[in-house]
From TrEMBL:
<dbReference type="InterPro" id="IPR003439">
    <property type="entry name" value="ABC_transporter-like_ATP-bd"/>
</dbReference>
<dbReference type="GO" id="GO:0098796">
    <property type="term" value="C:membrane protein complex"/>
</dbReference>
<dbReference type="Pfam" id="PF00005">
    <property type="entry name" value="ABC_tran"/>
</dbReference>
<dbReference type="GO" id="GO:0022857">
    <property type="term" value="F:transmembrane transporter activity"/>
</dbReference>
<dbReference type="GO" id="GO:0016887">
    <property type="term" value="F:ATP hydrolysis activity"/>
</dbReference>
<dbReference type="InterPro" id="IPR017871">
    <property type="entry name" value="ABC_transporter-like_CS"/>
</dbReference>
<dbReference type="GO" id="GO:0005524">
    <property type="term" value="F:ATP binding"/>
</dbReference>
<dbReference type="InterPro" id="IPR017911">
    <property type="entry name" value="MacB-like_ATP-bd"/>
</dbReference>
<feature type="domain" description="ABC transporter">
    <location>
        <begin position="9"/>
        <end position="240"/>
    </location>
</feature>
<keyword id="KW-0067">ATP-binding</keyword>
<keyword id="KW-0547">Nucleotide-binding</keyword>
<protein>
    <submittedName>
        <fullName>ABC transporter ATP-binding protein</fullName>
    </submittedName>
</protein>
<dbReference type="InterPro" id="IPR003593">
    <property type="entry name" value="AAA+_ATPase"/>
</dbReference>
<dbReference type="InterPro" id="IPR015854">
    <property type="entry name" value="ABC_transpr_LolD-like"/>
</dbReference>
<keyword id="KW-0813">Transport</keyword>
<dbReference type="InterPro" id="IPR027417">
    <property type="entry name" value="P-loop_NTPase"/>
</dbReference>
<dbReference type="GO" id="GO:0005886">
    <property type="term" value="C:plasma membrane"/>
</dbReference>
């Protein structure tokens, strides 16, 4: 089936099996370019498995995954790595910063795969997340919220079409959660597609659509919460 021009991801009948366990079980999902999707569901329901497949870190055992029309499920590691570097920005709950590199070096590191590292671009990315004055700090000299903002800068450095964030606020206090979410709103307003796994109802409600996973399947989809449009949806409506 061809993907529409509007779809950034088109996922059809995807399963990911580990022996007899189906971490994902016949999942189909289309994501519009520029959409903000929240993925929620109990622990073990397949959220990270789905993110890893969309993020080119894992492949399905069945089904097709199209990113901008390209078949990710047919790709081997060199090709997947290329897509990861060029199209996708990843944000993790546990940050995954290199501990002996400072903030700006961690951001530059993501450019090594792409082009010659450019400190000015890395500093600009840190400035966007309000972290320029911490550029020479090591991860251990930064709070959790500051580390996550460095991770967001790292995710942005190659100008990705899509940001995939797996529990991005899971280790943050409320103030830093707010900072990261406000920044996601800026990205969304700028047209970036956001796919965010979260346990937090407030964070989930920022998305235009919530996908609820249970036992590896999409149990239901919610547009907004309790029939109320989500904040992302409201922004879209106001813009129209
Ligand atoms: P979630 O992120 O929603 O907590 P996951 O996607 O991490 O769930 O996991 C879904 C299911 O797949 C769980 O039962 C988990 O134990 C299983 N699983 C995930 N990764 C592996 C793996 N590498 N080997 C075996 N089972 C796995
Ligand atoms: Mg998970």
């Amino acid at each position: 089936m061809a993907t529409t021009d509007e779809s950034i991801y088109s996922i059809q009948n995807v399963s990911r099996r580990y022996g007899s366990l189906a971490a994902l079980d016949d999942v189909s999902l289309d994501i519009r370019r520029g959409e903000w999707i929240s993925i929620v569901g109990p622990s073990g329901s397949g959220k990270s498995t789905l993110m890893n497949i969309m993020g080119c870190m894992d492949s399905p055992t069945e089904g097709t995954v199209l990113l901008e029309g390209d078949r990710l499920d047919k790709m081997g590691e060199p090709e997947l790595a290329n897509v990861r570097r060029n199209k996708i920005g990843l944000v993790f709950q546990q940050f995954h910063l290199v501990q002996h590199l400072n903030a700006v070096e961690n951001v530059e590191l993501a450019q090594y795969y792409h082009s010659m590292p450019d400190s000015q671009e890395a500093l600009d990315a840190l400035e966007r997340v309000g972290m320029k004055d911490r550029a020479t700090h090591l991860p251990r000299e930064l709070s959790g919220g500051e580390q996550q903002r460095v991770c967001v800068a790292r995710a942005l450095i190659n100008h990705p079409d899509v940001i995939l964030a797996d529990e991005p606020t899971g280790n943050l206090d409320e103030v830093n959660e707010r900072i990261v979410i406000d920044f996601f709103h800026q990205l969304h307003d700028g047209g970036t597609t956001l796919i965010v796994v979260t346990h937090d109802a407030e964070v989930a409600a920022q998305g235009e659509r919530q996908i609820i996973l249970e036992h590896g399947r999409i149990a239901r989809e919610v547009i907004g919460v309790d029939g109320t449009p989500t904040k992302g949806q409201k922004n879209r409506d106001e813009a129209e």
